[in-house]
Amino acid sequence: MKAIEISGTREISIIDKAEPAISAPDEVLVKVKAVSICGTDVHTFQGEHPFVKPPVVVGHECCGEIVECGSGVTGFAPADRVAIDPVLGCGSCRACRSGRANACANVSCRGVHVEGAMQEYFKIRECDLHKLPDTVDDLALGAVVEPMAIGAQACWRGSVAKDQIVLVFGAGPIGIAVMLNAHCLGARCILVDMKEDRLQRAVELGALATFTATDPDLKDKILSLTDGEGPHVTCDAVGHPAIFEQCIDLVAPTGTVVLLGMDGSPNEVTELQIFRKEMTVVGSRMNSNMFPTILDRVASGQMKLEHMVSHRFAVDQATEAFKMAVEQPAGFLKAMIVF
């Protein structure tokens, strides 16, 4: 079978490899339909990922059609169309026992810690599969259930609720996913980004307001939209110390700050700031069983997966797909490779 391999820094190869074979009763063989490119994949492509190094097959935002099931599989059958949850926990620790494998101390993610789905066939556990509703005519869109689930996780961690105002820093795929999930919960969203085209997309998708990150009056404008109190929830979907500081500064008293981006750099937040507002500060990592939530919202018509995809590429255009994901020209949101 064909597989897309990151073979070196900014180098993509289409390689031949053996098709996986079912070896356990709970395994399912999926013919991959589409894999969308995540920021993690881009970091690996550019040689910037701290531990994922070429040569490697990446891809954790994926979907396909079942072609074979192990003898113990009871919930699926060949020809079922599925989205794949890439989170792999140990199964026995406190986090896993509570249904939050994403917080497992030894968590793995397919396409990051172990081999990914950018290949024609992918072997997966039954428990990681989710059937796509019939309302999804385009099977390839199942690949973006995973980033949508990240947005749902962030809203759950932030206790987003009806009539709240949510401030999201970052109008890329994850920021948009947070906004779309918040809308399903009855909240309204303000988005902040550096790129005007992304802010325009947010407006088209129903943002209450958008602002450029460099706006010198950003704080005053946000306060004016929130009766001077600040948003109920602020979310860093970028991952930058200065943005975390803004989230802390702008959130309303008793509000919640959601840390969704990843950055290990120090920041200037003090305990006093958190204490005075009695705010809640939470992390949100990948997703914990949020695929059913997304698929229910899609089936009911609350959410449209096509809002997450801006460009599609064939397998032999994988290099172009990754380069576009790096360069992010105007109008770009997420690239998808279709098998």
List keywords for this structure.
339 residues; alpha/beta; Quinone Oxidoreductase, Chain A, domain 1; Rossmann fold; 7-stranded mixed sheet
Element layout with pairings:
Layout lengths: L1 E7 L2 E6 L10 E10 L2 H7 L15 E9 L11 E4 L2 E2 L5 H4 L10 E2 L11 E5 L3 E3 L13 H13 L7 E5 L3 H12 L3 E6 L2 H9 L4 E4 L5 H7 L8 E4 L4 H10 L5 E4 L11 H7 L2 E4 L7 H9 L11 E4 L3 H10 L7 E4 L1
Parallel strand pairs: 10-11, 10-13, 11-12, 13-14, 14-15, 16-17
Antiparallel strand pairs: 1-2, 3-4, 3-8, 3-17, 4-5, 5-9, 6-7
Helix pairs in contact: 3-4, 3-9
Summarize the structure.
This protein is α/β, with parallel strands linked by helices. Helices cover 26% and strands 24% of the residues.
How would you explain this protein's 3D organization?
- There is one protein chain.
- This protein has 339 residues and is an alpha/beta fold.
- The protein folds into 2 domains: 2-148 and 287-338, Medium-chain alcohol dehydrogenases, catalytic domain (Quinone Oxidoreductase, Chain A, domain 1); 159-283, NAD(P)-binding Rossmann-like Domain (Rossmann fold, 3-Layer(aba) Sandwich), CATH 3.40.50.720.
- It contains 10 helices and 17 strands.
- It has helices at residues 39-45, 94-97, 145-157, 173-184, 196-204, 218-224, 241-250, 271-277, 291-299, 318-327; strands spanning 2-8, 11-16, 27-36, 61-69, 81-84, 87-88, 108-109, 121-125, 129-131, 165-169, 188-193, 209-212, 233-236, 256-259, 280-283, 311-314, 335-338.
- Strands 3, 4, 5, 8, 9, 16 and 17 form a 7-stranded mixed sheet that branches. Strands 12-11-10-13-14-15 form a 6-stranded parallel sheet, sandwiched between helices.
- The model has no long low-confidence stretch (mean pLDDT 97).
